[in-house]
Automatic annotation (TrEMBL), chain A:
Single GO cellular component term: plasma membrane
Any one GO MF annotation of this record: symporter activity
Protein name as it appears in the record: Sodium:solute symporter
Enzymatic reactions: L-proline(in) + Na(+)(in) = L-proline(out) + Na(+)(out)
Subcellular location: Cell membrane
Gene3D superfamilies attached to this UniProt entry: Sodium/glucose cotransporter (1.20.1730.10)
Organismal lineage: Bacteria, Bacillati, Bacillota, Bacilli, Bacillales
Automatic annotation (TrEMBL), chain B:
Keyword Membrane found: yes
Transmembrane segment boundaries: 12-31, 37-62
Keyword annotations from UniProtKB, A to Z: Membrane, Transmembrane, Transmembrane helix
Annotated region (Disordered), positions in chain: 80-100
Lineage, broadest ranks: Bacteria, Bacillati, Bacillota, Bacilli, Bacillales
Protein source organism: Salipaludibacillus keqinensis
Tree of life domain: Bacteria
Protein's name according to its UniProt entry: Uncharacterized protein
Amino acid sequence: MGEEAWQLSNPFLGIAAIIVTFILFYVVGYISNRKSSSVTDLYVAGASIGPLTNGLAMASTYMSLATFLGITALILQLQVPFIMLWIQLILSIPLITIIYGTSLRRMGAFSPTHFIRERYGLSASIIAALFMILVSLMYALGQMIGIALAFETVLGIPYLTGLIFGGLVIVGYVTLGGMAGASNNAAIQMVIIALMFIVPLAAIMKAVGGSGWFFPPLLYSDMVPAMLEAMPNFFDYQFSPKWYVSLIGLTIGSLGLPHLAMRIYTASSLKSARTAMVWFAFIIGLVFSATYAMGFVGVYATETQGVAISAADADKLTLILNLVYNPEWVTALVIAGAISAGLSTLSGNLLAIGALLSQDIVTVLKPNLYVKTRLKLGYIAIFTGGIISILLAINPPAFLVVSILWAFGLAGVTNAPLIIVGVWWKEANKFGAIAASVIGGALYIIVSPFVFPTIVLTGHSVTDGMGLSGAMLAIPVSFILLIVVSYVTNRIPKLSTMLTTKADHILIERIHGWKDIHPRRYNSTIGAAITVAFFTAIAVWAIMPWNM
Amino acid sequence: MNAYKLEVRFTIMMSVLLLLAGNVALIFSIFPVNGMLFGFPIMYIIPILSGWFGILFLTIVASKIGNHIDEKIEQANEQGDPSLEQIEGFTKKKKNYEGA
């Protein structure tokens, strides 16, 4: 089987599947959106969503087009190390919930930037919001690339036409839908997406001779001997422990993702948010495991079945496997599922951009704006963010996952330390926060290959491009700056008049549920010193040779 | 301070356990293991199983303990320590957030 142009021979099947899926989503969005009349409703659906729906919505927001298209492409490229990279991304919602989600929910904040504003003041929050907009745009970029590839496969049209057509349809949907529509939709989407991914995977596994096709996420061990024979190094870890340590940067990055943290605030109570976390872990574990199986089968098919996939088509691996082994109508459903996955994540990204721009920047600078004007600004920001992500996707990176994971790293550098330290250490102040996000963020951008291709830490293009090496250096630097600068400036009398120390202490006690102030709570200097020592060691290790 | 200590210890311990369960590959990259389990190489299937069922188990535990700590903090608030400064403007601030 030689290389070929992969597309549906009957584009009407694909269009029909997409239209039916969209009608379903529009109807649910319309019904739930009739209730959305306030700003709070638009962004967090009035904090009224039950645990299973919220858990599904969390999973759906997290399970982006990367799950359908991106992961399998990089499993084809890197094999098992990429699976190991992806596994720890399940930690996002559990860690957000445990470390700061419930605290921020108790505070009543509906975005991490809102917390940063209350904790560190306006300047720090505007800087954080600007970085978060960049994070959301880079995340949305990955989705846009995937959507363009999906439309390219359905209609046999060029990538650029698919991008503009598909991008505009989806941006229009999100702008009209709001989070209430998106949350209810996201739960339905999650069920549909999971079925559209796992059922066709079962059929593919059966077609290539796998006997465990009835539960594809875990039952493909009978294909392992043939895989080892055809590709003996498939299961090799390939990289040193340092590379695996750098993956934790992605975990920290997921703690700073604005659109993900927002899902905690849609829960009806703290208990409900914690139960949603359990559902999230179950569902996302199932889907992630199915994705590894799809990647395994993809490599198996190329190595043992003669399916040839060019480097340029790597992101289409899931679609290509369906085109080769399943009837066209199944591929059409998979494409509709992929677009749904992109849709739910993109809606999360764009709504985060809307909230960041209208709530966290414009309203902060102009607090007397009418509620209706703020709502309008939100819609304009959502639409503009969508258009910018379409424009960025015109000249995309080699793999769509690269921009998404790079965004994780940036969130980990500029946002996560401010929230984590801000929630757990009273001494953290605005000088430390500004130093951490500005210097840490600039460092991360400088050592990424997109701005100065010659200033990189490893020289291994995927490792640098995904931000693994940059995050391993910049996240520790950000934590160190936040702690050290805060500690020093708190002890300079001239600067202490510019700080709101007492209000900060009250805020921290309150978001942990306390109604009184205890000077020894959340105020450990030893804990801060240990954190600085630990991160100094990691930062030094990051700049030493990677030998890749 | 008991509820406070419990909260801090729980957060640190649970974060470490979750990080370990999600990063079994890091441990295997330092201490490689040969052999097969359920038909897969051990270094492949254990990280996948731990990254699903291990994390699921920990979230169930974290959910239960998190709710328990909330109750403990609430109890400590009710008992109240008169030597400590009470948070002023609690209701007012909360109202402001809700209106934001």
